[in-house]
Write a structure and sequence with these properties.
Blueprint: E1 14-20, H1 30-36, H2 38-56, E2 63-68, E3 75-76, E4 98-102, E5 104-105, H3 108-121, E6 126-130, H4 139-150, E7 157-162, E8 168-174, H5 175-191, H6 199-209, E9 213-216, H7 226-236, E10 251-255, H8 281-293, E11 298-302, H9 312-322, E12 326-331, H10 337-347, E13 351-356, H11 361-368, H12 372-385, E14 391-395, H13 404-413, E15 418-422, H14 428-435, H15 446-463, E16 466-467, H16 469-476, E17 490-493, E18 498-500, E19 514-515, H17 521-527, H18 529-535, H19 543-546, H20 551-554, H21 559-568, H22 582-596, H23 599-603
Parallel strand pairs: 1-2, 1-6, 2-4, 7-9, 10-11, 10-17, 11-12, 12-13, 13-14, 14-15, 15-16
Antiparallel strand pairs: 3-5, 6-8, 7-8, 17-18, 18-19
Helix pairs in contact: 1-2, 3-5, 8-9, 9-10, 10-12, 13-15, 15-22
Length: 633
């Protein structure tokens, strides 16, 4: 018999509460039921709930509470006397660690606030509440939630587990926070737009306004739509996920510092604060060694500005000298003649500089700061003088578009032969501009981008400048791409040793795959729940990709751009979010397909999953001879 919640002394210090609905046909997963039928929806929900209960039982030293809603969604308060067994009991045959708590309140926010109030009144010191609508929540995430509450510096911390749909799968707080801010937390929960794509954004804003610090765990997902069932099946199944079985790492982005000498309006990393606890030289070398052991043969330095690290050349030496691996580095600061010579020496013919420049002088300096244009143009000249061949990189924010053709002429006149175009990530400075009603929106539409690119290509052909996105896209024609190589062949490491699938997510706790200060890279690479969720995603999980004629060539493009664009508009995000620049990429790939012809496309398989890492999209299309060509950032 499962004990009922009773006196204060029955509750332990840590309580894990599972918010659940009764296993009654028609009472659960109504969105799924509308499309699949009530019986199938109930079966899906029971599978999710039982998986969540099983994961909860793996968390040591916690009291387990099943917080049950009534059949109409509301609750009836504390259970009185022996627990009643509903028609289908989720706790039947489970561990006797479980106790029952009846939810009370009309709305989900009221019921959640009631669960916290009742559990803290019962003597709990930390409470973590989780949903029962997700694939089995990783035990490491549950343990992290309690660990972060235990290390809270002062009352006033929430722990949130962000869900891809814009909500959260977990929320936790400690008793000190409840005592000091219980009314604010209750108001936050009861006013929250539950079951909406704006829930997480609302919670983060409301927490900040109430003086609460919201600490985020890695991203997970809810199962609400039929398309989510495919991801659930992949996560639960035995078949290899996208990029598996792993062929090893290919390329690593080393986000070596958040420090930067510029204040670029559109920087994706604009919100990242520098902390003195960056990896030491020895730690970075050890990280590089671990990457090479797993197969990495190319490294990209990025930041911030890598040149601001005193040990940059030493780290470069370790890559090109000790390991004879390729390297690239992004920079936006001045490189004098002596520094250029030192970089050439350390590069050993394996180094490619990537210079950030966003237009002619007036446009570039308005975006990146006065003097930036002259610094970069002089730096590229200094690098060319010692045998290095810089690639110019331009972020296609709206103010940059009118200057692209003039920039092409100026670059070619300066002896630069390659230009790479970067589509804006709606994070950091771009997201901040969008949120500021008084600031001009930096994000162009796909139609604006397409018109600007077409005009640029005419000028580039005239002056002999290669816009390397075009050969990059052309390489994809006739192959089957599925999202990108991030998390399948490529990884990123941030300044503090946290591992991410993509460097653009560095600093975002939702995408932390693990920490090199806590475990080996191989363990993260093989076992990270964050990477597993990404690998379970497919481009064709998106409705628009499923019917797109160039989906194989496109592969759904950049899931990071898709995620942050959706977050910026408070829409369902995650790996299934729609790519925001389809109106640019789709017509370009259609045109390139016609140009290349249908011969290779006809030879490619028409179906099946992307199971080999080399078949994933994006940069994986590039071979060893094509490191000068890259598709993203």
């Amino acid at each position: 018999m499962t004990p009922a919640l009773g006196s204060r002394t029955q509750l332990g210090v840590r309580v894990l509460a599972v918010m659940a609905r009764p296993l009654v046909r028609g009472a659960v997963k109504t969105r799924l039921a509308a499309q699949l039928g009530a019986n199938e929806a109930l079966a899906v929900y029971e599978r999710l709930l039982l998986g969540t209960l099983a994961q909860a039982e793996l968390v040591p030293a916690v009291d387990l509470v099943l917080a049950e809603a009534g059949t109409e969604g509301g609750g009836v308060g504390w259970a009185a006397g022996p627990p009643q067994t509903p028609p289908s009991d989720a706790l039947a045959g489970r561990s006797n660690r479980w106790r029952r708590l009846a939810q009370r309140g009309d709305t989900l926010g009221e019921r959640l606030a009631g669960v916290f109030a009742d559990l803290f009144a019962g003597g709990a010191e930390a409470v973590v509440a989780v949903n029962s609508d997700s694939p089995a929540i990783p035990v490491t995430y549950l343990e992290q939630a309690f660990a972060r509450l235990a290390t809270a510096p002062s009352p006033g911390r929430l722990v949130l587990g962000p869900a891809a749909d814009g909500g959260y799968y977990l929320i936790g707080l400690d008793a000190a926070t409840w005592r000091a801010h219980g009314e604010a937390v209750t108001a936050l929960l009861t006013s929250s737009p539950m079951s909406s794509a704006s829930l997480l954004a609302h919670t983060l804003r409301a927490a900040k306004a109430s003086g609460l610090q919201a600490d985020q765990l890695p991203l997970w997902m809810d199962v609400d739509e039929p398309a989510d069932l495919a991801v659930l099946a992949r996560l639960d199944g035995d078949a290899p996920l996208r990029g598996e079985p792993s062929l090893g790492l290919r390329e690593i982005y080393l986000h070596v510092t958040h420090r930067c000498g510029r204040d670029c309006r559109h920087c994706y990393n604009k919100d990242a604060a520098w902390d003195p606890g960056e990896l030491t030289t020895a730690e970075w070398k050890e990280a590089i060694d671990q990457c090479v052991t797993l197969g990495a043969s190319s490294f990209v330095f990025i930041g911030g500005d890598p040149l601001l690290r005193d040990d940059f050349v030493e780290l470069l030496d370790h890559i090109t000298g000790t390991h004879q691996a390729h390297a690239r580095f992004f920079f936006n600061s001045y490189v004098d003649e002596a520094a250029a010579a030192e970089l050439s020496r350390a590069g050993r013919g394996l180094l490619r500089p990537l210079a950030s420049i966003d237009g002619p002088r007036a446009i570039n300096d308005e975006l990146r700061g006065p003097g930036s244009y002259d610094d970069i143009m002089t730096s590229m000249a200094n690098l060319k003088a010692v045998g290095l061949e810089p690639v110019a990189n331009t972020v296609l924010v709206r103010p940059a578009l009118p200057g692209l053709t003039q920039l092409a002429r100026e670059l070619r006149a300066a002896g630069i032969s390659r230009l790479h175009l970067i589509l804006p990530h709606q994070a950091g400075g771009v997201a901040g501009a969008a949120a500021d009603r008084d600031a001009p929106d930096l994000t162009p539409s796909g139609e604006e981008l397409l018109a600007a690119l077409k005009e640029l290509l005419v000028t580039a052909a005239e002056v002999g400048l290669v816009v390397d996105n075009i050969p990059g896209w052309r390489r994809r024609i006739g192959s089957r791409n599925d999202l990108c190589a991030a998390g399948c062949r490529d990884l990123a490491i941030d300044p503090y040793g946290q591992v991410h699938a993509c460097v653009i997510t560095a600093g975002d706790p939702a995408f932390v795959a693990g920490s090199l200060r806590e475990e080996r890279l191989e363990t993260i690479w093989r076992a990270s729940s964050s990477l597993r969720l990404l690998r379970a995603a497919r481009a064709r999980d998106r409705a628009e990709c499923l019917v797109c004629p160039v989906v194989d060539a496109c592969g759904g493009e950049c899931w990071v751009q898709a995620h942050y664009a959706a977050r910026a508009h408070e829409e369902p995000a995650g790996y299934a979010a729609p790519f925001p620049y389809c109106d640019l990429v789709r017509p370009m790939l259609q045109e390139l397909t016609a140009e290349v012809g249908n011969a290779r496309a006809a030879a490619a398989p028409a179906g099946g999953d992307c199971v080999a890492a080399g078949a994933c999209g994006g940069q994986s299309a590039a071979g060893a001879d094509d490191y000068a060509l890259f598709d993203c950032i």
